[in-house]
Amino acid sequence: MGSQWGKDKYYNKSRSEGYRSRAAYKLLDIQKRFGIIRDDDNIVDLGAAPGSWMQVLRDMTSGAIVGVDLNPIAPIENTIQITGDFTTEKIQEKIISHIHEVNVVVCDASPKLSGSKSYDQARAIGLNHEAFEFARRVLKPGGNFVIKSFQGEMFSELLNDIRESFYSVKVYRTTASRRGSTETYIIAKNFRGYHGAPD
Active site annotated at which positions (predicted)? Predict the structure, then answer.
């Protein structure tokens, strides 16, 4: 990623402040504006590698933190790392075995890009839907959900689906997002509960 985009001020700041990637500042910005994390929340971080969001989360809550990624995540004190595909039932059951009650699900995952804008956007939205379905499954009522997405033709459908399941849903572009990127975040607060969600 560094070679593709160059080393901007957030890259340099992450190096000097000990975060594993510049993405840490996206979550810090979201927390400052929306207060999604409470000090005792149990949190699942999907697409967590290399672990910068887990580093930030560890400073925000005393609750349990489980990070999941296809790539191994180097250990972070007082967190659990799972290597695997969070869209599979096997890995979802493993996540649930480590965390008895989930207050927040965050997802900064994105698929490997092919260079075809429409294809990549479709794959990103597909991954978003998988993360959303997982969040619906595990979140307790009143829980929060944050997910990275990309603006495009299928974005509004995803947004509407999420709005059916949460009382408050906002779209936000972080101050640390790169110029020219279509990246955006959906901030969903106060989960209605699984039984109130659409079929």
Answer: 148 (proton acceptor)
The per-residue pLDDT for range 110-154, each reduced to its tens digit, is: 887 777 888 888 899 999 999 999 999 999 999 999 999 998 889
**Residue 59 annotated as binding?**
no
> CA geometry: angle at 28 spanning 23 and 31, to 5°?
130
Looking at the chain, the whole-number percentage of residues with pLDDT higher than 90 is: 71
Domain of 97, CATH number, reads 3.40.50.150
Domain count, the chain: 1
Provide, rounded to the nearest whole percent, the portion of the chain with pLDDT above 70.
87
Catalytic residues: 148
* Closest to 23 in 3D by CA, of 189, 191, 181, 188: 181
* 69 annotated among ligand-binding-site residues: yes
